[in-house]
Specification:
This protein is mainly α. The chain is built from three helices and two strands, in the order ααββα. Strands 1-2 form a two-stranded antiparallel ribbon.
Length: 84
């Protein structure tokens, strides 16, 4: 792969990582700690939503983001002819 294509590939990968990590931060820290009082006014399955995000929601979002990252990287690999 040419140097210019490698740089573009890596730059796009870093954009994906930055966006996904920002989402993870907002969900885990924001919803689990910062906005917990506002979210606790909403109930999900009998539990306060802020409590749910702090205990389970952040983990679910993290696992979902892993699958999103895999899909994005598979698409990026195909774009740069790096798929297997």
């Amino acid at each position: 792969m040419q140097t210019e294509l490698r740089k573009k590939y890596w730059k796009q990968n870093l954009v994906y990582l930055a966006v996904l990590l920002a989402i993870w931060f907002l969900v885990s820290y924001g919803c689990g700690i910062l906005w917990v009082a506002q979210l606790n006014t909403i109930r999900l399955g009998g539990f306060k939503l802020g409590f749910w995000f702090a205990q389970q929601g952040a983990v679910y979002v993290f696992v979902l983001l892993i699958f999103v990252y895999v899909a994005l990287m598979n698409r990026l690999d195909k774009k740069y002819n790096l798929d297997e």
